[in-house]
């Protein structure tokens, strides 16, 4: 009886040991992620141009499209163009974080910072996770700085909860795109080439989206793509939340895109990053 009981207890002890080991590694990964996040947040405070770039781009798009193109687009579509434009610019501002993730990670790879990280007893996936979280924090601040400019121009949110939900969704979508930037950097690893590739995918998607103009104002052959590509889906969802129109379907579509991107890009980026330098 005693022998049988001991034999039966052994697997339970092994299971507890495995469980404790998994829990310990998880906590270590979280601690490493928090450390990298803090490192990149501190670096942003020491290099404010990293923050100012996204803010300047957001304000630039607001001024350019509202005062230069707004009359023609608004007259042609019958919409209040400023109310249409601002939510789209919020999404575009959040997407600037993806470009900064890409170029920043590539710079770390080229300058030997990543080599030092890999020599440390730390979770390597935490390096990318920490950077993307820091970029999400920077995106949040960028959006909060762009919003007052939009308000001065005459834009109005439908409600405070709608504004908070819209800004939160923009940050979440920007976070998903940051992993795309991380995947590009981990694969290419050359800062100049990464910068060129970031512009190559970001600007076509941005301009061929409903961030700046309704899909019906575009050529027929482009309307389908412009309607369903992820930036358009995100812009439509943020617009619905910000302007107080029915947002359920738009938000679900944006979250579906976000989940799919993260499901593919998180493991892909991590695997590419772990390859030998």
Outline of the structure:
This protein is mostly helical and 277 residues long.
Portion in strands: under 5%
Number of strands: 0
- Ranges where pLDDT stays below 50 over 5 or more residues in a row are 1-10
The share of residues in helices is over 70%
Major sheet: none
Which word captures the global form? elongated
The helix/strand series, from N terminus to C terminus, equals HHHHHHHHHH
The average pLDDT value, as a whole number, equals 83
Structural class: mainly alpha
How many H/I helical runs? 10
Termini Cα gap: 57 Å
**The number of domains:** 1
The gyration radius over C-alpha positions equals: 22 Å
Explain how this protein is built.
- The chain is mainly α and 277 residues long.
- The chain has one domain.
- Helix content is 84%, strand content 0%.
- It contains ten helices and no strands.
- Helix 3 runs parallel beside helix 6 (160-188) and helix 3 (81-111) crosses helix 9.
- The longest helix has 45 residues, at 2-46.
- The radius of gyration is 22 Å and the shape is elongated.
Reconstruct the topology from this structure.
Elements: H1 2-46, H2 49-77, H3 81-111, H4 113-118, H5 125-152, H6 160-188, H7 191-207, H8 220-228, H9 230-243, H10 248-273
Helix pairs in contact: 1-5, 2-3, 2-5, 3-5, 3-6, 3-7, 3-9, 5-6, 6-7, 6-9, 6-10, 9-10
Protein traits:
277 residues, mainly alpha, 10 helices, 84% helix, disordered N terminus
